[in-house]
Design brief:
Layout: E1 4-14, E2 17-24, H1 27-35, E3 39-44, H2 53-58, E4 62-65, H3 89-104, E5 109-112, H4 114-122, E6 127-128, H5 131-134, E7 152-156, H6 160-165, E8 169-172, E9 179-180, E10 187-193, E11 198-203, E12 208-211, H7 223-242
């Protein structure tokens, strides 16, 4: 059976309409999961207090946390620095609740870009609020060229990504100004750029993975990135069988 994987999506206003908000998510997340043997479902990050997140998570076999704006720094015990970007605090609260439930239910999680960051925060880790102003000698982590193609290399430690692609190095795209600083308890760093910026984390039980790059922008034409999608779908299938 194809596992059902929720793709978390947030709200936005569209141009010339500041009255109605719309839930949105990049099509790459959904298409990559469908191509890899999963059944993608859009998971709206509702911001009302009685949102039925538990019922929503019970219907899923796995979860993808998507990209977006910066998590609020007080959530990991810091004051806002000058380089901090736009905050969506209502999304933070909704996503933290979804993550808490997914962890409780032992649902596999793939966090991408912001998704990796909020997963790390939810589990007790911290973030670099702004790489350019806080990491001397850092690479350009918000590439100015096409984001569908790689910009810098990531060296991989043994874990989910290295196993998925069968390599110890991968060329990734990059579209972020924040990154994991202190890895959350129960997680390990499994990938880093040569400038020291953490690019991949994984829970010690192997259920939860965070990637700082955007594989969904690449997995339509990059075989390594497609293998990551396929490996996550396989992880969800395996977890589903083990919980029967």
């Amino acid at each position: 059976m194809r596992p059902i994987i929720g793709v978390a999506c947030t709200k936005m206003y569209f141009p010339n309409n500041n009255l109605d908000q719309f839930f949105y998510v990049g099509s790459g997340y959904v298409e990559g999961i469908a191509r890899s043997g999963g059944t993608p479902l859009i998971l709206p990050l509702l911001t009302n207090a009685d949102a039925p997140f538990r019922a929503m998570l019970e219907s899923l076999d796995g979860l993808i946390l998507t990209g977006g704006d910066d998590p609020a720094p007080h959530l990991y015990g810091e004051e806002p620095l000058q380089g901090l970007g736009h905050i969506e605090y209502e999304r933070d609260l909704a996503e933290l609740e979804v993550i808490k439930l997914a962890l409780e239910m032992k649902k596999p999680i793939l966090g991408i870009c912001r998704g990796m960051q909020i997963l790390n925060v939810a589990c007790g880790g911290t973030l670099i609020q702004d790489i350019p102003s806080q990491v001397p000698g850092a690479f350009q982590h918000a590439q100015k060229g096409s984001r569908q193609y790689g910009a810098h290399k990531v060296t991989l430690q043994p874990g989910f990504v290295a196993d998925a692609i069968g390599k110890t190095e991968i060329l990734v795209n990059t579209s972020h100004h924040q990154a994991v600083k202190d890895v959350a308890p129960g997680f390990a760093m499994t990938g880093a750029a040569a400038d020291g910026v953490i690019e991949a984390i994984e829970s010690l039980d192997g259920l939860h993975v965070g990637l700082q790059w955007h594989p969904e922008r690449m997995w339509g034409h990059d075989s390594d990135m497609q293998k990551i999608a396929e490996a996550f779908v396989a992880k969800v299938k395996q977890a589903k069988l083990q919980t029967r």
